[in-house]
Amino acid sequence: MVTAETAMSLPVLVLLTLMGVAAVGVGQARVRCADAAGEAARAVARGDPASAAERARAAAGAPVAVRIGSSASDTKVTVRMVLRPVSWLPMVSITESAVVATEPGVPS
Predict the structure, then answer these.
(1) What pTM was computed for the model?
(2) pLDDT at position 79, please?
(3) Is residue 106 part of a domain?
(4) In this structure, what CATH number is given to the domain that contains residue 6?
(5) Span 77-82, average pLDDT
(6) How far apart are CA 2 and CA 82, in angstroms?
């Protein structure tokens, strides 16, 4: 009797486990995306906007879209990453931003 109930619930347990693994993957991607935004924002704030996208891609470890906005006092970089955690799940878009103070003497 117990084995039949276990056999019926086993697919649900496998599905829940896969969903948990996918959630952990998305969490890791969010952290990588936030790190990439911070790296790019620091590069722009130091006056090196040409290398910002390359630094963001290197920090994220995946293709990312980088949007840069700067003013006289702050530099804001937004990084967007699209990933598919599991092949049968839909794609997930992750967006993270970082704001850092612009270095003195750097043109906005």
Answers:
(1) 0.82
(2) 96
(3) no
(4) 3.30.1300
(5) 95
(6) 43
